[in-house]
């Protein structure tokens, strides 16, 4: 597969389900992601502004391709309720060929 069409997984977290669902639906509608999974009721522990934080969050997993990485990250940043959202890009090093071909075909081309 060419580099630009390389499948990737983008991870982010959200504080509330409504914001996560809105972003997920729009990512699919704009063909920035082939599939978005939301995993509810995740307990996150982190230090913020010198204090230990314990928050319930929603994890978002977006299946997309390398050429849309910057567009997806920008979209999340613009529509996220956090000032500094967690956004991580993870390579997909393997998987079911048929699923990966489907995912690549579902997103914006070129």
Which shape, going by the Cα principal axes? Answer: elongated
Q: Which spans of ≥5 residues are poorly predicted at pLDDT below 50? A: none
Structural class by sheet pairing and helices = alpha+beta
What strand order characterises the main sheet? 2-3-1-4
- Strand fraction: 35-45%
Main sheet specs: 4 strands, antiparallel
Q: Overall mean pLDDT score?
A: 95
> Share of helix among residues?
25-40%
Order of helices and strands: EHEEHEH
Secondary-structure arrangement, i.e. CATH architecture:
2-Layer Sandwich
Q: Mind telling me the CATH class? A: Alpha Beta
Number of domains in the coordinates?
1
Number of helices: 3
Query: End-to-end distance, in Å?
Result: 14 Å
Structure, explained:
- With 110 residues, the protein is an alpha+beta fold.
- The chain has one domain: 2-Layer Sandwich (Alpha-Beta Plaits).
- Helix content is 31%, strand content 38%.
- It has helices at residues 17-29, 69-79, 97-106; strands spanning 7-14, 35-48, 51-65, 87-91.
- It has a four-stranded antiparallel beta sheet with strand order 2-3-1-4.
- The mean pLDDT is 95.
């Amino acid at each position: 597969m060419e580099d630009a069409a390389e499948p990737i997984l983008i991870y982010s977290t959200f504080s509330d389900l409504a914001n996560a669902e809105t972003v997920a639906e729009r990512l699919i509608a704009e063909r920035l992601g082939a599939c978005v999974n939301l995993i509810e009721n995740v307990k996150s522990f982190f230090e913020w502004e010198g204090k230990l934080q314990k928050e319930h969050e929603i994890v978002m997993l977006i299946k997309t391709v390398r050429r849309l990485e910057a567009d997806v990250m920008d979209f999340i940043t613009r529509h996220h309720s956090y000032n500094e959202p967690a956004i991580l890009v993870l390579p997909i090093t393997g998987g079911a060929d048929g699923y990966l071909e489907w995912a690549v075909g579902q997103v914006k081309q070129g």
